[in-house]
Amino acid sequence: MKNELTKPKFKPALRLARHLFVAAAIFLWVGPSGAAQPTMVVGGGTGTFNADLDGDGRIDGSHFGFAVVPH
């Protein structure tokens, strides 16, 4: 039988303090994430008209490209 004087009286409080300390240590070690880079959509290609529109003997077309960045 244990002596009542040596029995820990604040066991739940010590357990809570230990858990809070571990949580704070993990948060400080990992740290809050920085701002994410903006999402960017890019593309491009070639469009053809299936015709010689300017009479030079070649099928005419157009090259294009685009980029979209939200603000």
Describe the model.
- This protein is α+β, with helices and mostly antiparallel strands.
- It has one helix and two strands.
- Strands 1-2 form a two-stranded antiparallel ribbon.
> How can the largest sheet be summarized?
2 strands, antiparallel
The order of strands across the largest sheet is 1-2
Which structural class fits the helix and strand makeup?
alpha+beta
* Tally of DSSP helical segments: 1
Head-to-tail CA distance between termini: 70 Å
Question: Looking at the structure, what is the overall shape?
Answer: rod-shaped
Percent of residues in helices comes to: 25-40%
The average pLDDT is: 79
Count of β-strands? 2
Portion in strands = 15-25%
Q: Runs with pLDDT <50, length 5+? A: none
Strand and helix order: HEE
Radius of gyration: 34 Å
Give the helix/strand layout:
Layout: H1 11-30, E1 41-48, E2 61-68
Antiparallel strand pairs: 1-2
Key structural traits:
single chain; two-stranded antiparallel sheet; rod-shaped; 71 residues; alpha+beta; 1 helix
Short description:
With 71 residues, this protein is of the alpha+beta class. 28% of the residues lie in helices and 23% in strands. The radius of gyration is 34 Å and the shape is rod-shaped.
